[in-house]
Design goal:
The protein is α/β, with parallel strands linked by helices and 610 residues long. It is built from 22 helices and 21 strands.
């Protein structure tokens, strides 16, 4: 007979090695022999020795009528061997025997918990389940512990190929809970994260070592794009640094777009609000998309469909994507994909600029965690992101930069070369920037000092506070980038970025609404002059003794005209009254006055035409 340490793989296919241990009477000697033989079995390629021994012991005890309650998982090729108590876990499935000896199955195929993930951001625990069906390779998925604790919710795993139904759901969750409890020290525990961005006392995701992604499976591909590839500052022109230097020197637009990408993780440090930088233009070949790729290459793979996302998504999808990126910029290409069949843009700047999503309920009751973010949103399209009827809040949050053939973001003919270079070299600069930013409190204080200085300079100009905040964040980022990432480059100046900022008057929705009213009256002048041949009169146009043109517009018609263009009639008329554009009103009315139109007393709005 073979020595205890001399068994071959063929020997383990017989009962002889298991009998040699079982015959030992002393429990201590049996335990030592079991450990030695388990190591021998592993050395010759038998990975489930303990399960086989327990199966042998079980058969012997069963023959003698003993109670069996110390089993282990016995799945071929299993990732880990686990104690499973009173459960039988082998190729026939996972089951218990009832008092009549009948099998009650929890699952008809191998499945087991192999990793416990603790989210460093939320503290929530999840389990990684490994499972196998038939002869297919082992697969795994990460599941919320709350799902594995509910018979009603655990059935959703059926969509991933796991054989759990409403019939076996209770036994299924009981099996997983008991096996996890029995093997708490054996199942490895891993720190995990479900988003990007800074986590206090942990670091900046995904640059923290030892973190496993446990977030929504839809974002796994986006998470994996945030990585280094190629060279940052290699020899010659074949590196990211050369591409960035060349692009910065080619146009102010490219410089602003690149700086806005770096500004994104700064917002939470300096206390600024999310903002948009939108490149638009009807001319092709002006480098809008390539400039967006330049911004994306700071963090990850800039190829379209990788880090850069599409406008062809729902509002909820955009909210959750912004929350997942958290402090990294959200890059959206081709605004025209968000237009409806009538050519109207179906995109609301407010939804993303406010930095938080809607409060939503859950299917099982209660309120879900509201998504939040603090990042820059970088976009491109063939038309401006905001229209004349958008509110001042929306206009204030967007730096609209028009790209024309005479002033492209990237010089014509260079886009293919630059995009090709960026697809080979990316993901280095962002990591350098955030690691330097969070390296010391002094660096963060310097960012705050720069931001306050730029904000004061920009606020002294004819622009709004929110436009000044966005521009100051971009200038701060560009200044720090020229110190930490691209040394030797001159930072963008206040004068250079000021050309892209909206003036106070252009940002005012009331001013834009009033200008629309004047244009509307001019285009429909005959409707305000009495003529028997005109079937519908909308008011009366006249000059007062001081030769000031006044137009009495039927109030209902004015409201209809404003609202058809997307303006708030109440907001526009209130602004007009406050700014002296409605010189006459009835005493008991706020904005209307009574005038005779075709001899009939009618409620009108008196509009001053300058």
């Amino acid at each position: 007979m073979n020595d205890i340490m001399g068994w071959t793989k063929e020997d383990f296919l017989t009962s002889e090695p298991y009998e040699s241990i079982y015959r030992l009477d002393d429990p201590f000697e049996r335990g030592l022999a079991l450990l030695k033989l388990q190591a021998e079995a592993k050395a010759v390629g038998v990975t489930n020795f303990k399960g086989l021994y327990n199966a042998f012991e079980k058969s012997v005890k069963k023959a003698s009528g003993s109670i069996i309650a110390d089993n282990t998982t016995n799945f071929p090729g299993q990732p880990i061997e686990l104690d499973c108590g009173t459960w039988y876990a082998d190729t026939t499935g996972i089951y218990q025997e009832n008092t009549f000896g009948a099998r009650v199955y929890a699952c008809p195929h191998p499945i087991m918990p192999v990793e416990r993930l603790v989210n460093v951001d939320t503290g929530n625990e999840r389990l990684r389940l490994a499972y196998q069906k038939g002869t297919s390779p082992w697969r795994s998925l990460i599941v919320e512990k709350s799902v594995l604790a509910s018979a009603a919710q655990v059935t959703q795993l059926a969509g991933r190929g796991i054989a759990v139904t409403s019939e076996n759901a209770k036994m299924f969750i009981k099996y997983l809970a008991e096996v996890e409890t029995l093997n708490y020290d054996r199942i490895p525990e891993t720190r995990s994260i479900g988003r990007l961005g800074y986590i206090p006392d942990v670091g900046f995701s995904p640059y923290v070592q030892g973190l496993t992604f446990d977030g929504d499976a839809n974002f796994k591909a986006l998470y994996e794009t945030v990585q280094k590839h190629g060279s940052f500052d290699g020899d010659g022109e074949n590196c990211w640094l050369h591409a960035a230097r060349w692009a910065r020197r080619s146009s102010v637009t490219a410089r602003v777009m690149l700086a806005a990408s770096f500004a994104s993780p700064l917002l939470s440090v300096i206390g600024a609000l999310p903002f948009f930088v939108h490149l638009w233009g009807v001319d092709s070949g002006t480098g809008k998309t390539v400039a967006l790729m330049l911004a994306a290459s700071v963090w990850g793979n800039p190829a379209l469909g990788k880090y850069i996302q599409s406008f062809n998504s729902t509002v909820v999808g955009q909210e959750f994507t912004a929350a997942f990126l958290n402090q990294l910029p959200l890059c959206l290409d081709e605004l025209q994909l968000a237009k409806d069949s009538k050519g109207r843009t179906n995109f609301d700047v407010y939804k993303l600029a406010q930095g938080s999503g809607r409060t939503r309920g859950t299917k099982v009751g209660g309120v879900a965690v509201r998504p939040t973010w603090a990042n820059a949103i970088l976009t491109t399209g063939e038309s401006p992101l905001t229209g004349t009827s958008d509110g001042a809040g929306a206009v204030n949050r967007v730096l609209d930069i028009e790209c024309v053939s005479g002033s492209p973001a990237i010089p014509e003919g260079c886009g293919m070369w630059l995009s090709g270079l960026l697809k080979k070299h990316y993901g280095h600069a962002g990591r350098i920037f955030v690691e330097t930013l969070y390296q010391s409190e002094d660096n963060q204080n310097e960012a705050r000092r720069l931001y306050e200085s730029f904000f004061q300079q920009l606020s002294a100009r004819d622009t709004t506070e929110k436009q000044a905040m966005a521009a100051a964040a971009i200038l701060t980022a560009d200044t720090l980038v020229c110190r930490w990432v691209i040394p030797g480059e001159p930072p963008t100046s206040v004068d250079e970025i000021a050309q892209f900022l909206a003036s106070k008057s252009s940002a005012s929705a009331g001013q834009r609404g009033y200008e629309f009213v004047i244009s509307w009256i001019a285009m429909n002048k005959t409707r305000f002059q009495y003529d028997a041949d005109i079937p519908e009169i909308w008011g009366r146009l006249e000059n007062d003794p001081q030769q000031i043109a006044l137009c009495y517009v039927v109030s209902s018609k004015l409201r209809q005209a404003l609202e058809s263009e997307g303006f708030s009639a109440n907001a526009v008329t209130s602004w007009m009254l406050s700014n002296g554009k409605i010189p006459k009103t009835d005493r008991d009315k706020k904005v209307v006055c009574t005038q005779r139109i075709n001899g009939i007393p009618t409620k009108c709005v008196c509009v001053l035409i300058e």
